[in-house]
Amino acid sequence: MIRPDLDITLLRCFLTVLDAGGFARAASLLGRTQPAVSQQIRRLEDLLGHRLIQRASPGRSQPPQPTAAGERLAEQARRLIALHDGLVADMLGLEDLPATLRLGIHQHASDEILGRLVAEVARLRPGTGLDLRITHNAQLAAEIAAGELDLALPLAIVTEGRPEVVQEGALPIAIDWRGEGGNPAGGAALPLIAFRPPCIFRQAAIMALGRAGRRWRLVHEATDARSLAAALSAGLGIAAVPDIGRYDDIPRAPAGLGLPLLPGAMLRPLAVPGLGADLVAALAGLAAGR
Fold first, then answer.
1. Measured between alpha carbons, how far is 170 from 86 in angstroms, rounded to an integer?
2. Under a CB-based contact definition with an 8 Å cutoff, are residues 156 and 203 in contact?
3. pLDDT band with cut points at 50, 70 and 90 for residue 216
4. pLDDT in tens, 229-288
5. What is the C-alpha to C-alpha distance for residues 169 and 24, in angstroms, rounded to an integer?
6. Is 131:260 a contact under the CB 8 Å cutoff?
7. Taking 80 as the threshold, does the pLDDT of residue 4 lie above it?
8. pLDDT tens digits, residue range 198-209?
9. Number of other residues whose CB lies within 10 A of the CB of residue 72
10. CA 18 to chain centre
11. Residue 215 CA: distances (Å) to CA of 188, 192, 197, 251, 261
12. Cβ-Cβ contacts under 8 Å for 190 (sequence gap 6 or more)
């Protein structure tokens, strides 16, 4: 009997179907059509002479489960792919990636690009685990400094008059005044809604109002994006927030308030030394909208 040569691409496809929990999701991550993914799985099964994945019953949408043969293959395929990728990385002089990529992203940017980031990691490093942290800047900075994250995507204010601060691979983000409850009568202090410190948007708002000589008073200190949005929707005051989708349903502050201009911000990648340069570049490109 002639032993077949296994195609690494088929093994990657097989593992992606299992890890993604379905053929449709795997097709999206691999950049292929669902029929093409199904065809690759059938080809792998034909080569090995075993059914590898239990198909769902008609009318039922359950995640695909490996057969006994599929379980044996999955365990060995992960080792084979790791050896293959390690060999390629060594020959090409590429850095190795950890088995699990610890990725942190600012809570205000997660809605905008998180899905694309996860898909890109799966495309570039199939089989690599992903440990996601969605939090605020201070926590991201602390965790990457402590070596608890491999890659972080925090937000930073772009200092006025210093365009060089906008580094290559960063995604520029506008900051807007939002809310319709900020129209004080008789020159009263402007009602301000802000996150608890430390917060770059709180800092941007306070500094902009201070430079403009505008009086303000803190009417609500939010603990997260949901509570801040609720306070804005209730008309408690105004807030400086990033223009990246989460606050689209909240109207911009009225122009009649004459509010000062706010600085811009950027989403910028921070990676630990030795992380795969190709992956960092790809994720930075996604963050920058490329």
1. 29
2. no
3. very high
4. 889 988 899 999 887 667 778 888 888 888 999 988 877 777 766 665 556 666 655 554
5. 30
6. no
7. no
8. 788 888 899 899
9. 13
10. 22
11. 8, 10, 19, 22, 15
12. 182, 184, 209, 214, 215, 216, 217, 237, 238, 257
CA gap 13, 122 in Å, rounded: 11
Dist. CA 229–CA 208, nearest whole Å: 21
> How many whole angstroms separate alpha carbon 285 and alpha carbon 169?
6
130: exposed, middle or buried (C-beta count within 10 Å: 0-12, 13-18, 19+)? middle
Flag the least confident range among 23-27, 103-107, 112-116. 112-116
Judged by DSSP in three states, 37 sits in helix
One-letter-per-residue 3-state SS of 177-241: EECCCCCCCCCCCEEEEEECCCCHHHHHHHHHHHHHCCCEEEEEEECCHHHHHHHHHCCCCEEEE
Residue whose structure tokens are 């807030």: 239
Which DSSP helix (H) or strand (E) runs through 104?
strand 100-106
CA distance 152 to 138: 11
> Which pair of tokens denotes residue 163?
């365009």
Report whether 202 contacts 194 (CB < 8 A). yes
What average pLDDT score do residues 126-140 get?
77
H or E segment to which residue 117 belongs:
helix 110-124
- List of residues 6+ apart from 255 with CB closer than 8 A: none
Please give the single-letter amino acid code of residue 240: A
What is the rounded distance in angstroms from the CA atom of residue 193 to the CA atom of residue 142? 26
pLDDT of residue 278: 59
* Token pair for 35: 């029929």
CB of 30 closer than 8 Å to CB of 16: yes
Work out the end-to-end distance of the chain between its first and last CA atoms, rounded to an integer number of angstroms: 49
